[in-house]
């Protein structure tokens, strides 16, 4: 999906979505402030978010969090721009896409949740010996949706290892995100780029085997962040700080806790997923450092994100961090939350 097409879809989505919920600042009982979060998908990758909810960290900060899942970056951003949610949890690239369209009320990234890509390279057969990316050349590769961060991080990794995705692979990108695991299981592709828990589930079922991590290969970047419109942050600075504090508490807890403890804390968000699967996914993400230890988006991460976007042809021009990143809340949370 090109930049112009993406912009048209995003603007169409904004017109289609109507704001039907009360905004942040509307008080419930006592001193609690309601904050509506829209997450781009329900994923174990977002474990610290669920920890913040189930461990009561938002509640302790005086926030009544309402969490909804708004599948897809375009839909999540459209809902945020239209006022249907207060805070979006989505890839930082979406704030850049909005900026590229021109906006009087830019979307600001204020708290990072994950700091690597969350996908893995899955093969039909177990790895024999040391893996070399060159074995992918000439194979059929089932990739992610064009223009999204998984696909961009995937292609960035492939190019880093001397593979031109469009020329060296039979690259398939016309399968809907939700249908990619099913397509691979039914015989499409020799290799596939998969999120968890599908990768771990495939291993347990003997349908596929993780042989490399795109998260490790593509480096640190603000992969998933909490963001809000600048006007919202300006009007609700106190609530934004409380939000950042709650997330930092969760990040601290995740870093200090065992895989088993984290699994128990988030299992209620995945009632249809076997606990052993959740445990395996948490272990994999924790070991490769996918969960951010704080919400600060540093310049190196921001620039790496833009390198990935630029390599994919999805960046019109580079954006200075200060234009779309506000680290004040994350920095204060890191200093004050213990």
Sheet with the most strands, sense and barrel status: 5 strands, mixed
Query: Regarding CATH, which class of the largest domain?
Result: Alpha Beta
Radius of gyration: 19 Å
Uncertain ranges: 14-29
Oligomer: single chain
> Strand tally, please?
10
User: Order of strands side by side in the largest beta sheet?
Assistant: 2-1-3-10-4
CATH level 4 superfamily of the largest domain: Periplasmic binding protein-like II
Q: Helices and strands, in N-to-C order? A: HEHHEHEHEEEHHEHEHEHEHHHHHHH
Structural class: alpha/beta
Distance between the termini: 43 Å
> Strand-residue fraction?
15-25%
Mean of all residue-level pLDDT scores? 90
Signal peptide: 1-22
Family: Belongs to the bacterial solute-binding protein SsuA/TauA family.
Keywords: Signal
Protein name: ABC transporter substrate-binding protein
How would you sum up this structure, described in words?
With 338 residues, the protein is of the alpha/beta class. It contains 17 helices and 10 strands. The chain is 45% helix and 16% strand. The protein folds into 2 domains: 3-116 and 221-336, Periplasmic binding protein-like II (D-Maltodextrin-Binding Protein, domain 2), CATH 3.40.190; 119-218, Periplasmic binding protein-like II (D-Maltodextrin-Binding Protein, domain 2). The longest helix is centred in the C-terminal third of the chain and has 20 residues, at 237-256. A 5-stranded mixed beta sheet has the order 2-1-3-10-4, sandwiched between helices. Helix 12 crosses helix 17 (328-336).
């Amino acid at each position: 999906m090109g930049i112009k097409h993406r912009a048209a879809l995003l603007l169409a989505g904004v017109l289609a979505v109507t704001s039907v919920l009360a905004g942040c600042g509307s008080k419930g009982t006592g001193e609690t402030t309601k904050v509506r979060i829209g997450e781009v998908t329900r994923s174990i990758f977002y474990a610290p978010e669920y920890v913040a909810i189930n461990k009561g960290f938002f509640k302790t900060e005086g926030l009544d969090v309402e969490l909804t899942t708004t599948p897809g970056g375009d839909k999540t951003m459209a809902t945020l721009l239209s006022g249907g949610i207060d805070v979006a949890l989505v890839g930082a690239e979406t704030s850049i896409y909005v900026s590229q369209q021109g906006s009087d009320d830019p979307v600001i990234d204020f708290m990072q949740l994950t700091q690597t890509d969350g996908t893995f390279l899955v093969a039909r057969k177990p790895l024999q010996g040391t893996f070399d990316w060159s074995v992918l050349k000439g194979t059929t590769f089932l990739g992610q949706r064009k223009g999204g961060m998984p696909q961009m991080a995937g292609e960035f990794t492939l190019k880093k290892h001397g593979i031109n995705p469009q020329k060296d692979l039979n690259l398939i990108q016309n399968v809907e995100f939700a249908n990619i695991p099913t397509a691979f299981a039914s015989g499409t592709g020799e290799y596939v780029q998969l999120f968890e828990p599908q990768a771990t589930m495939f291993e347990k079922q003997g349908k596929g085997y993780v042989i490399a991590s795109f998260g490790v290969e593509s480096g640190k970047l603000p992969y998933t962040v909490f963001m809000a419109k600048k006007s919202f942050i300006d009007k609700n600075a106190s609530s934004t700080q409380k939000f950042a504090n709650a997330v930092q508490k969760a990040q601290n807890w995740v870093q200090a806790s065992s895989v088993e403890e984290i699994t128990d804390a988030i299992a209620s968000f995945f009632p249809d997923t076997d606990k052993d699967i959740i445990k395996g996914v948490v272990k994999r993400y924790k070991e490769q450092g996918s969960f951010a230890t704080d919400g600060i988006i540093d310049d190196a991460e921001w620039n790496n994100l833009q390198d990935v976007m630029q390599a994919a042809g999805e960046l019109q021009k580079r954006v200075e961090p200060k234009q779309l990143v506000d680290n004040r809340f994350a920095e204060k949370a890191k200093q004050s939350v213990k």
